[in-house]
Amino acid sequence: MAEEVLVFGAWGSPFSRRVEMALKLKGIEYKYIEEDLTNKSPSLLKYNPVHKKIPVLVHNGKPVAESLVILEYIDETWKDHPILPKDPYERANARFWAKFIDEKCLSAIFKACWGEHYEHEKAEKEHEKAVKEVSELLQFLENELKEKRYFGGETVGLLDIAANIIGYWLGVFEEASGAELLTREKFPKLCNWANEFVCVTAIKENLPARDKLIAYLRNRFGAGNASK
Amino acid sequence: MAEDSVKLLGYWASPYSLKVKWALKLKGIQYQYVEEDLKNKSPMLLQYNPVYKKIPVLVHDDKPLAESLIILEYIDEVWKQNPLLPIDPHERAKARFWAKFADDKCVPALVAAFSKKGEEQERAVKEARENLKILESGLEGKRFFGGETIGFVDIAAGWIGCWAQMTEEIIGIKLIDAETMPLLDSWFQDFLEIPLIKECMPPQDKLLEHCKESHKKF
Question: What b/e string do you get for A120-146 counting C-beta neighbours within 10 Å, with b at 16 or more?
Fold first, then answer.
């Protein structure tokens, strides 16, 4: 039976790229549909009426929304190259850190790069506070990595894919805004991991062009808090 | 399995630790319950959940787990009897989606309706009602999210019915409207009538008092 896999995404979104990374890792063929988020297609609104957001995976006509939910669906449907470990505790651990990245890290990183603009005297203090928060969050991930090559161990797993924000987008945010967050001195393991991560074929082929992303971010969010 | 191999750190009035109690009870798992004083968190809690410093924490064979939905999935994977999640991957994805929706969209709106005043409260009430209506669509006309018996989403979100009712009583504004959300309303009622669900609930009068006390702070 012919299988149809559609992915609705946006070129710069780490969330839709996660879905593509997982499919690529497992060698699954899919049709990609680029969404204009300022003018969402009727298909997107039909497939994700609740949130009206990308990414959405549509498998044989059945939609799945929310990137981490999609990653689990992909792993359960296509069993080759598993992205979650077999052990229930390790699985729970991967889910915990993926949720941590989405619920805590992203907003903290954004704040440190492009946070609210305060009056001059407050600005530096607020920026310092935001950077400190990101530092604390990254430290948790640094500790979680331990001596492993990837979060998933010897091969890229769900948490590595979820951490694409840290592995690639964070560096781009830093360059676009001038913020310094993922430094080698403080986070040697995480930096090594990021370098390895972006070299993995299935990942590399799914990273948005750096210059294009920087231009987009500067245009959308401004020059950044740390810019002088 | 020996009782001491499973420990739950919780708080009597927290719906999040209640969810975990329900799952453990549904699967007949023996465990040791440890009540935390949230104004004076134990060193054990801080050690087991250094990231969020919150309950619930499930400790199994000395390995700690935090975040209620993650704990539910773990329980479901370790103890296979009375499964919470369905077998079909698309149905599983839908269950995860709705559990997340309830936590991310329904709960914050209800909390805002509870804690805010004036226009902010009005907006929060409107949002809560809209999101509850959307949650109703996830039922797909079934009695429970799990079908004829309760499953993952029922345990993850069924508590909202009780807490929403208390909120209605305290703020004097209707949130769950039997006319506009008949299926959701019956679902909450049916869910809270299930013996094992009812047995684990904290005493209602004590809970209401606790919520009233919390409300005074706002």
Answer: eeeeeebbeebbebbbebbebbbebbe
Residue of A nearest to B70 (CA): A92
Q: Global pTM?
A: 0.96
What does the DSSP 8-state code read for residue B53? -
pLDDT per residue as tens digits for the range A34-72: 999 999 999 999 999 999 999 999 999 999 999 999 999
Give CATH 3.40.30.10 domain extents, chain A. Answer: 5-77
Q: Residue B34 — left, alpha, or beta (φ > 0 → left; ψ -120 to 50 → alpha)?
A: beta
A165-184 tens-digit pLDDT? 999 999 999 999 999 999 99
| pLDDT value for A62 | 98
ipTM above 0.85, yes or no: yes
With beta carbons under 8 A apart, name residues in chain A contacting B90: 59, 62, 64, 73
Retrieve residue B142's tokens. 């079934």
Contact assignment for A64 to B90 by CB distance below 8 Å: yes
**Cα A93 from chain centroid?**
18
pLDDT at A124: 78
Fold for domain A5-77? Answer: Glutaredoxin (3.40.30)
Report d(CA B173, CA B167) in Å as an integer: 8
Say whether domain A88-221 belongs to CATH 3.40.50.2300: no
Please count the residue pairs, one from chain A and one from chain B, whose beta carbons lie less than 8 angstroms apart.
54
Q: Closest to A92 (Cβ–Cβ): which among B65, B92, B134?
A: B65
Given a cut of 50, is residue A228 above it in pLDDT? Answer: no
Chain A partners within 8 Å of B134 (Cβ): 50
